[in-house]
Structure to design on (420 residues):
């Protein structure tokens, strides 16, 4: 009895301990199982926060935002006693067409004024071959009409602004800033040279400029194509300024100088030679240099010529500023396009204003008209020309302004196709 009385509590304690061990063991097993499941299951990927949408601000504010961002970024790591840096601005352009406009000129003027007022560490000098030879920092920028999603398609509702500074000595991008500008107060009319240029095509040198701004980040190396062509670009910039100031003989000499450089075989040079010869009354040389424009476009397989029509018509219209020699243009295109056995595709384009269906029909009729003119000029082209109208589907500008600012949207484009 004594033993049983003393053993009963011990047995109870043993049973309690046993149950406790069972419960704890179960909890531990559950915990271990949960850990095993967590380790076996793929780790949950944290969703990165969505990038804040770029909000369009008034044009002057966008310019200040981008310019301040680049200047302050370029100053990072510098010391108070460091020497002033020489900076040149390779003129800003539309990020699709490569054209300079009244807006891009205005942006450049405001950048220069801001540097003089707020950033004495930078010595802004004219974009010349001599300044480039000093190993200056170079600022490039694009100012491009975009839709609500920031794309160069559909209805353009704002301007995407990209500004970059590169260090030629270091060979890399040292600062970058972007902004979005509201369209109010923006005059995107091309400056004189680009307004008068007869043709547009995708050009490797212009593309390298645009990519230097849009396709790079801080620390990236500068495009070799851009670096190798920067002296030529400086000469072309001086030539454009001379042309816009009606100093046509000076502009012609500069375009000739640019043509002699290693990167001189480009559309801006050919357009410049054609325009200056035309302005100086050199008819034969103008025809020959327009032929060079055509050859270059056909070689690169995109030649957009500003053959403009009267609104809602297939009748040609002339530029109010100069008699546009469409007959000579069409003769050169037909003659040089008919030299090979390939087919020539003629594509008519229109601005986005008005009915899309009517615009497409009208662009087809205009392409048919040009096709007929080419075949009349060069009978060997008969059966080798295809006419297509695409309306506003391939707009380069897309603003629907229907004036000089979006003339390229009403171009007629020529492409070489395989043998028919």
């Amino acid at each position: 009895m004594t033993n049983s009385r003393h053993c009963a509590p011990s047995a109870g304690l043993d049973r309690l301990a046993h149950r406790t061990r069972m419960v704890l063991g179960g909890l531990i097993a559950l915990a271990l199982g949960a850990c095993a499941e967590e380790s076996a299951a793929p780790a949950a990927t944290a969703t990165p926060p969505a990038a804040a949408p770029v909000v369009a601000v008034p044009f002057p504010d966008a310019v200040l935002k981008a310019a301040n961002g680049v200047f302050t970024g370029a100053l990072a790591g510098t010391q108070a006693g460091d020497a002033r840096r020489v900076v040149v601005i390779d003129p800003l352009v539309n990020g699709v067409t490569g054209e300079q406009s009244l807006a891009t000129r205005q942006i450049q003027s405001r950048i220069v004024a801001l540097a003089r007022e707020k950033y004495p560490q930078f010595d802004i000098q004219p974009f010349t071959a001599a300044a480039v030879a000093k190993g200056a920092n170079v600022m490039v920028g694009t100012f491009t009409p975009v839709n609500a999603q920031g794309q160069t398609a559909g209805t353009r509702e704002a301007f995407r602004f990209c500004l970059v500074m590169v260090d030629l000595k270091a060979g890399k991008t040292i600062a970058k800033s972007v902004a979005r500008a509201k369209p109010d107060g923006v005059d995107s009319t091309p400056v004189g040279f680009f307004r008068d240029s007869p043709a547009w095509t995708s050009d490797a040198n212009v593309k390298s400029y645009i990519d230097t701004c849009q396709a790079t980040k801080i620390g990236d190396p500068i495009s070799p194509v851009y670096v190798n062509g920067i002296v030529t670009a400086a000469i072309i910039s001086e030539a454009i300024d001379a042309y816009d100031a009606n100093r046509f003989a000076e502009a012609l000499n500069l375009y000739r100088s640019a043509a002699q450089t290693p990167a001189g075989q480009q559309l801006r040079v050919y357009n410049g030679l054609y325009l200056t010869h035309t302005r100086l009354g050199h008819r034969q040389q103008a025809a020959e240099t327009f032929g060079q424009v055509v050859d270059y476009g056909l070689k690169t397989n995109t030649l957009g010529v500003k053959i403009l029509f009267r609104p809602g018509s297939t009748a040609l219209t002339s530029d109010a500023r100069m008699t546009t020699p469409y007959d000579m243009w069409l003769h050169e295109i037909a003659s040089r396009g008919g030299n090979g056995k390939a087919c020539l595709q003629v594509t008519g384009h229109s601005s986005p204003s008005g009915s899309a269906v009517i615009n497409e029909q009208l662009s087809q009729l205009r392409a048919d008209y040009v096709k007929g003119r080419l075949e009349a000029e060069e009978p060997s082209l008969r059966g080798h020309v295809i006419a297509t109208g695409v309306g506003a589907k391939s707009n380069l500008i897309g603003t629907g302004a229907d004036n000089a600012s979006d003339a390229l949207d009403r171009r007629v484009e020529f492409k070489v196709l395989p043998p028919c």
